Amino acid sequence: MKILNWLLVITGICGLIGVRTLEDTLFYDPFLNYFHEANKNIEFPAFEWGKLIGGHLFRFVLNLLFSCMIIHGLFRNKQWTLQGAVMITIVFIISLPIYLYCISDKFEIGYLFSFYMRRFVIQPLTILLIVPMFYYRKQMIGKESVGN
Q1: Is the separation of the CB atoms in 59 and 33 below 8 Å?
Q2: What is the DSSP string of 49-85?
Q3: Burial class (CB in 10 A: 0-12, 13-18, 19+), 59
Q4: What does the pLDDT look like over 109-134, one tens digit per residue?
Q5: CB 69 within 8 A of CB 8
Q6: Residue whose C-alpha is closest to residue 62's, from 103, 2, 33, 21
Q7: How far is 148 from 146, CA to CA, in rounded Å?
Q8: Are residues 131 and 38 in contact, defined by beta-carbon separation less than 8 angstroms?
Q9: Residue (of 68, 64, 111, 70) closest to 92 by Cα position
Q10: CA 114, CA 73: separation in Å to the nearest integer?
């Protein structure tokens, strides 16, 4: 059973790497080059709202799937996997409208602020908080059961 868990973790990590590596071909995102240039004076790209939102939603679903595979492989707990998925979804639901507002404002709110809001939309940063949190939780549960 341990091999299956590690296979889930490795597959999830490879999936997240794959999403990042193939982002140019998998998703519609005219802001990839805009932010890769790291030049505030570059021309604001033309884009289609529907395609952009659809691309971000598709990327979110893939990141969520692979993140849940990692969480489940590490902790073997369906409830924790569901909690992780809910937390990741909440962060996305909060950050996507803020990022879309930044786009509608043509990043006048701030280039760096917009850049980092975009990171929360397109990258699975929340998993970097969830895994240590669940690991700590697992350690505390282990200490409680030894103490009783």
Answers
A1: no
A2: HHHHHHHHHHHHHHHHHHHHHHHHHHH--HHHHHHHH
A3: buried
A4: 988 899 999 999 999 999 999 999 99
A5: yes
A6: 21
A7: 6
A8: no
A9: 64
A10: 33
